[in-house]
Amino acid sequence: MSGETTGAVRVVLRLEGLCVLIAASVAYSKFGFGWGTFALFFLTPDISFFGYLAGSKVGTVSYNLAHSYIGAVTCLAAGVVVPAPTILCIGLIWCAHIGFDRALGYGLKYPDGFGFTHLGRIGRFPAMMSNTEVNQDSER
């Protein structure tokens, strides 16, 4: 599959995700939002997994919408400009979640399946495995 990131660029993108997670968490703390709310809503973007019940293409769109910084940063900006603390809180938790996922290597998905991401292959057969290794592993 083309389009996946490998090598040092992949490491940098994952480190960026870690930085976003840390920055969003520090900002969340500085704004004085409750950590119970953070814990309660941290995994909310993962509800988008249910899109995969309607097929890989629908799942890809729903996952990518929930795991793109576009919506999260829009919430951050709106929360600061309006000002709307609830929207700011949502944006910070959302950014932290995306950063966490990216730090773990869960990137935006391709319609080929859940394991195909812009950060490389995830799951049982990582990107580093050759076709021969995959075939040997599936025969076991």
Strand content: 5-15%
> Structural class, from helix and strand content?
mainly alpha
Give the C-alpha Rg.
17 Å
Strand order of the largest sheet: 1-2-3
Could you give the order of the helices and strands?
Answer: HHHHHEEEH
Relative helix content: 55-70%
Uncertain stretches of 5 or more adjacent residues: 128-140
Global outline:
globular
* Ends distance: 24 Å
Q: Using DSSP, what is the number of strands?
A: 3
Query: Major beta sheet, specifics?
Result: 3 strands, antiparallel
Mean pLDDT across residues: 88
Tally the helices: what do you get?
6
Please give a handful of descriptors for the protein shown.
140 residues; 6 helices; mainly alpha; 3-stranded antiparallel sheet
Textual characterization of the structure:
- With 140 residues, the chain is mainly alpha-helical.
- It has helices at 7-30, 35-41, 56-66, 69-81, 85-104, 131-139; strands at 109-110, 113-117, 120-121.
- It has a three-stranded antiparallel beta sheet with strand order 1-2-3, with helices on one face.
- Strand 2 and strand 3 form a beta hairpin.
- Helix 1 (7-30) runs antiparallel to helix 5 (85-104).
- The two termini are 24 Å apart.
